[in-house]
Amino acid sequence: MNKKLRIRDLTLRDGQQSLFATRLNQDCINRLLPYYKDAGFYAMEVWGGAVPDSVMRYLGENPWDRLKSISEAMGGKSLLTALSRGRNLFGYVPYPNTVLEGFYKEAIKDGLNVMRIFDALNDLDNVRSSVKLINELGGIADGAVCYTVDPKDDEPEAKVGFFARLFGKKPAEKKKIFTDEYFIEKAKGFEEMGAKIITLKDMAGLVNPARIASLMPKLKANVNVPVDFHTHCTPGYGLASALMAIIHGVDILDTNIWYFGEGSAAPAIELIYVFCKKLGVEVEANMEAVGKIRAELKNVRKELKAFDLAKSFPNDFDPLNDTLPANIDAKFDEAIAAAKANNEEALLDACHAIEDYFNFPKPNLIVKTAEVPGGMYSNMVAQLKSLGAEDVLNDAMALIPKVRRDAGLVPLVTPTSQIVGSQAVMVALSRKKGNADYANVSNQFSALIKGEYGKTPVPIDPAFRQQITGDATEHPYDVASYKMPENPELAEFGGVKLAKNDAEYLLMQLLPAVANGFLRKLRETEYQATKPAEPAKEEVKEEAAAVEPITGPTFKAPMGGKVLEISVKPGDTVKLGTKVLVYEAMKMENDLTADIEGKVKRVLVNVGDVIATNQPLVEFE
User: Fold this and answer.
1) The whole model's pTM is what?
2) What strands, in cross-sheet order, belong to the sheet with 598-603?
3) What is the pLDDT at residue 537?
4) Residue 551, Cα to own-chain centre: how many angstroms?
5) Would you tell me the crossing angle of helices 128-136 and 97-109 to the nearest 10 degrees?
6) Rounded Cα gap, residues 180 and 150, in angstroms
7) By the 8 A CB rule, do 312 and 360 touch?
8) Which helix (H) or strand (E) holds 219?
9) What is the distance between the alpha carbons of residues 128 and 107, in angstroms, rounded to a whole number?
10) Is residue 259 within 8 Å of 298, Cβ to Cβ?
11) What are 105-115's pLDDT values in tens digits?
């Protein structure tokens, strides 16, 4: 075999994020790592993305500890990679270079080798500092170009008469933005600034095989560094497009291991191995070790049942020892022949037949139509369920293309996928209530429209910017205005600082709301461990204090969420538009401003409270 294919395994980061809401805990990872050490993957994506947020928010674990533990267990056997959002890192605001440098320095010290760097707007100015810093600190900068497509023209054509149709001008075709040349330009820009790998990052699985046949050879011809391909199987293109990429010379392919593959995730390495064996391409991985990981992953997936979107397991398969039925083996041959002939329809039919045989999820037509990432879809489902508003899911999905166009045709990748998705939900809820489309907007959506996230692929309509932000002028984010978070002393836990070291303080900088709660619980646990055990006291039941009834007008929550900040207190006089509080809904921060005037009688909630839609928040006299 002359051709070789390097593998970047995504199971421990993107695989669990796409299929199991990033709930893979450290105990499960520890059971897998001894087998990973022998797997011989070129790289393992183990960190970044939603991991730092989720392990603190849901699992009560320290993100830095996760990275260090994996690095120590692997002992340099595979490159460890992470995903970051360039200037935004893992948060939702742009950071100054001092924060970027501190973060990258800590990550590399804790074992990170490759940082895959992308910008949700494909604005290269937002990644320049990150590429430079990663290279200077001894890491490998991987420049990820975010793949997306031009939106469908779903606006109905105006009705015209017979003679107008006969003699009138044909409507001008809308200019295509996301051409092959667009992506080539971004890739070359990354290489020029020092990226050592170029990734075509198809976070929504929208790149179809025919487009790969056109785009991959151009990428290979225009850059001199290895090209990596990252995609998802959600809409039904992933496996076929991965095969097409292999045929057209991709250097590195992102895959997952069987029980964490396909569906909303990347293609399964086992299916890729079968294709490569038939093509005479050597997969650079120890498939016997992969088999041991696969066996343990089946047990892990059972433990993640509560978060399993697919619910149905794929049929067991060992590509080293199992013999495929003749009709399914033939489908692999048909797929290869169709790919070489650039017959997309036959290629997709063969790949879908293979996936059906193994009981992998069928293409998600809702995701395909709305053109969104699978992770974004799963997040929207979970968030709407928590709000008790599942009935607006289809409406929200249908609104995503509109919100995306209004926001300058941003690619849908974190954080813009979350910003656009949550805003589509808000628009759907507003329509349900009979309100205007953008009656409520998140702080992050407003910042995106203002220009704080960078240059959008298409300029935003100044009239829309005026509507959302109150100013038609674009205002880029001034990193000099970034304020370092406070690190208070916690008197209730012995006077210790909330963040005890630089690594913990970095978490506060990157994810302030989540890190604050995580670190506070950590300090409480540490404090309680130092106190001597107190003798058990006989429980005395006290009668609940009578709750004072609400008699005055109230300000209510337009949507459920968690209270982050309260800006008023009893006795304050509130005018229309005064900020009352800040709350988090669907991972977005929202300023709530008063829709009535008056004097505050009572604030009915506290910081940290989880509030419901239409719950009274403030009572006025």
Assistant:
1) 0.85
2) 554-556, 616-620, 598-603, 573-574
3) 60
4) 44
5) 40
6) 12
7) no
8) helix 209-222
9) 18
10) yes
11) 999 999 999 99
Maximum mean pLDDT: which of 13-27, 82-96, 285-299: 285-299
Q: How many whole angstroms from its chain centre is CA 72?
A: 27
In this prediction, residue 162 carries a pLDDT of 47
Evaluate whether 403 touches 420 at the Cβ level (below 8 Å): yes
Closest CA to 199 of 240, 135, 146, 242: 146
pLDDT of residue 160: 44
* 142 token code pair: 């991987």
* pLDDT computed for residue 96 by the predictor: 87
Give the rounded distance of the alpha carbon of 456 from its chain centre.
19
Specify the pLDDT at position 229. 98
pLDDT at 89: 85
Distance CA 166, CA 390 (A): 47
Query: Checking DSSP bridges between strand 281-284 and strand 489-490, what pairing results, if any?
Result: unpaired
- For residue 218, which of 197, 188, 242, 192 has the smallest C-alpha distance? 188
CA dihedral over 465, 468, 473, 477, signed as positive or negative: negative
Q: What is the pLDDT of residues 139-158, one digit of tens each?
A: 999 999 999 998 776 543 43
Lookup: tokens for 134: 């990663």
Tokens at 239, concatenated: 């496996």
What lies within 8 Å, CB to CB, of 173 at 6+ separation is: none
485 by Cβ neighbours in 10 Å (0-12 / 13-18 / 19+) ranks as: middle
- CA count, 13 A, side-chain hemisphere, 36: 31
| Among 42, 127, 33, 44, CA closest to 81 | 44
| Residue 511: its H or E element | none
Q: Which SS3 state, helix, strand or coil, does residue 578 take? A: coil
What is the amino acid identity at position 621?
A: E
| Token output for 329 | 């083996």
pLDDT at 543 over 50: yes
- φ/ψ of residue 528, rounded to 5: -65, -30
What one-character-per-residue DSSP string does 371-399 give?
A: T--HHHHHHHHHHHHHHT-GGGHHHHHHH
HSE-up of 384 (CA within 13 Å, CB side)?
Answer: 23
Alpha helix segments (H runs only) across 470-511: 502-510
Report how many helices (DSSP H) and strands (DSSP E) the chain contains, helices first.
22, 19
**How much is the pLDDT for 211?**
98
Sheet containing strand 561-566, edge to edge, reads 588-593, 579-585, 561-566, 610-611
Q: Which residues contact 392 (CB under 8 A, 6 or more apart)?
A: 384, 425, 428, 429, 432
Q: Answer whether 10's CB lies under 8 Å from 48's CB.
A: no
Sequence-separated (6 or more) residues with CB below 8 Å from residue 444: 92, 415, 418, 419, 588, 589
Q: What is the pLDDT of residue 38?
A: 96
Radius of gyration of the chain (CA): 26
